[in-house]
Amino acid sequence: xxxxxxxxxFQAVLAGSTLARTPHFALHSVAxxxxxxxxxxxxxxxxxxxWLGAMVPKRWAKRAVTRNALKRQIFAVSQLYHAQLPTAAYxxxxxxxxxxxxxxxASSEALKLAARNELHQLLARATQxxxxxxxxxxx
Length: 139
Hints:
Blueprint (H helix, E strand, L loop, with lengths): L1 E2 L3 H8 L2 E5 L3 E6 L20 E5 L8 H17 L8 E6 L14 H20 L11
Parallel strand pairs: 1-4, 4-5
Antiparallel strand pairs: 2-3, 3-5
Helix pairs in contact: 2-3
């Protein structure tokens, strides 16, 4: 599994379709050959593999320790689904914050467990989506 690194890669994937949603996360995807407009330009995805990026904005996770913990959970859970995901580029995006009343600590085990469970749901929905079906799987 390759990781998205550049802003252009993230923008290309976010411009693609939303594959699945949960209350806190969204999974965006785009085919690897979707950026072939200019033949002289360096390709965004030079290796045909599953590409993954994690996007955890400060708007929804104020503390850096929380953002880093969520990103670690995203990459750990996605590694479990690596073989089931079709070759494409994906971005897991945090779309709403976790309740600070329920999860008082910035990096608690309860927060990590809740994020892991929701990421399992997200990636299970994405792997169950049929290739010919519409891109969005309802939450």
